Automatic annotation (TrEMBL):
Protein name: Octaprenyl diphosphate synthase
Segments passing through the bilayer: none
GO BP terms: isoprenoid biosynthetic process
Lineage: Bacteria, Pseudomonadati, Pseudomonadota, Gammaproteobacteria, Pseudomonadales
Species of origin: Halopseudomonas salegens
Claim: Nucleus is one of the keywords in the record: no
InterPro entries linked: Isoprenoid_synthase_dom_sf, Polyprenyl_synt, Polyprenyl_synt_CS
C-alpha cells in the first residue's frame, strides 16, 4: 500500500480488493495465472481502484460491493496495458520487463482477453445494470481511442483537438468510469453521479497531460519507462503539437521530422525545443485547469475523509514527478 495520504481512508478496502484480485485470477491454464499474476503484481499506483473505493465511500457505500467494482476496474486496466504493450512493442513498464517481452505477443494478447472476459463475469455477478452500462460503454470508447491514436502515429499534422479526443477516450475514460460507476453502485442521486463522472474525466485528462510533460522532463527510473518513449513511437503528444504550432520555424521542423521518422535520435534536441517553446508550461497549465474542474465537482459531496482524499488525489496529479 502506498504511503501517499489519500490511500489511508480506504487501506482496509484495498486489502480486500487485492485478495479478491488474486482469487479472480484463477484459471485451469497455468500460463494465464502466471502472466496475470506477473502484470498485476507490478502494482503501479492502482489509481483507478483507488478512485472507485474513495468515490463509493464518499457516496455512503458500506456493503463491500465496491471491492468487486475496484477489482473489475483493475482487470480492465490491466487488460488494456497488456494489449497496449503489444501494440507499442514496449519492453519496459513500471520498471520491469513487459509481459510481451517475457512471453511473447500472442500470450499477452490472449491473457488480456481473459482479464476482459473475467471482468465482465464479475460485472454480471455484481448485478447492477447501471454499472454494466457505464463499463461496457467505457471499454468500447477506450478501444476506439486506441485505434484513433494508432491512426495518428507519425502523423505530424495531428492537432490539439484530436489529441484531446485521444486522451479522453484512451486514458480519461476509465477514470471517469471508475468514479461514475462507484456513485451509481452506491445509489447516489443523479446530480452526484454526474458530478463524480466529471471528476473522473477531469482527473484522467490531468494525469495524461502531466504524463506527456514527464515524457520530456521526467526521470526514467522514477517513471518506470524511458524518457522520450512517446516520441520514439512517433506519437504526436501535446508538447510536440504545441511546439510545431507555436515554436520557431526551426523548432517546428525539428519536431515534425522527429514525429515522422520516429526513434529517439533527436531526443535531446527535441527536449530543448519543447522546453524553449513553452510547450511544457502550456501543457501543465491545461492540467491545472482540469484539476480545478475536478475539485469543483466534489462540492456536491458531504465533507468526509473520502472527499478530502479525492481532492488530494487531484492535486497529486499535477505535483507528481512520476
Amino acid at each position: 500500500m502506498s504511503t501517499l495520504p489519500f490511500y489511508a481512508p480506504v487501506s482496509d478496502d484495498f486489502e480486500a480488493v487485492n485478495a479478491l484480485i488474486l482469487r479472480q485470477l484463477h484459471s485451469r491454464v497455468p500460463l494465464v495465472e502466471k502472466i496475470g499474476e506477473y502484470i498485476i503484481s507490478a502494482g503501479g499506483k492502482r489509481l483507478r481502484p483507488l478512485v472507485v473505493l474513495l468515490a463509493a465511500r464518499a457516496c455512503g457505500e458500506e456493503t463491500g460491493r465496491q471491492h468487486s467494482l475496484a477489482a473489475i476496474i483493475e482487470f480492465l486496466h490491466t487488460a488494456t496495458l497488456l494489449h497496449d504493450d503489444v501494440v507499442d512493442t514496449s519492453d519496459m513498464r513500471r520498471g520491469r520487463s513487459t509481459a510481451n517481452a517475457l512471453w511473447g505477443n500472442a500470450p499477452s494478447v490472449l491473457v488480456g482477453d481473459f482479464l476482459y472476459s473475467r471482468s465482465f463475469e464479475m460485472m454480471v455477478a455484481l448485478g447492477s445494470m447501471g454499472v454494466m452500462q457505464i463499463l461496457s460503454r467505457a471499454t468500447n470508447v477506450i478501444a476506439e481511442g486506441e485505434v484513433l491514436q494508432l491512426s495518428k502515429v507519425r502523423d505530424a499534422s495531428t492537432d490539439e483537438a484530436t489529441y484531446m479526443e485521444v486522451i479522453r477516450s484512451k486514458t480519461a475514460m476509465l477514470f471517469e468510469a471508475s468514479s461514475h460507476s462507484a456513485a451509481v453502485l452506491a445509489g447516489a442521486a443523479d446530480p452526484v453521479a454526474e458530478a463524480l463522472r466529471v471528476y473522473g474525466d477531469a482527473l484522467g485528462v490531468a494525469f495524461q497531460l502531466i504524463d506527456d510533460v514527464l515524457d520530456y522532463r521526467g526521470d526514467a527510473d522514477a517513471m518506470g519507462k524511458n524518457v522520450g518513449d512517446d516520441l520514439a513511437e512517433g506519437k504526436p503528444t501535446l508538447p510536440l503539437i504545441y511546439t510545431m504550432r507555436e515554436g520557431t520555424a526551426e523548432q517546428a521542423q525539428l519536431v515534425r521530422t522527429a514525429i515522422q521518422k520516429g526513434g529517439s535520435e533527436q531526443i535531446v534536441a527535441v527536449q530543448a525545443a519543447v522546453r524553449d517553446s513553452g510547450a511544457l508550461d502550456y501543457t501543465e497549465g491545461l492540467a491545472r485547469e482540469q484539476v480545478e474542474r475536478a475539485i469543483a465537482a466534489l462540492d456536491v459531496l458531504p465533507v468526509s475523509p473520502y472527499r478530502e482524499a479525492l481532492e488530494q488525489l487531484a492535486r497529486f496529479a499535477i505535483e507528481r514527478q512520476y
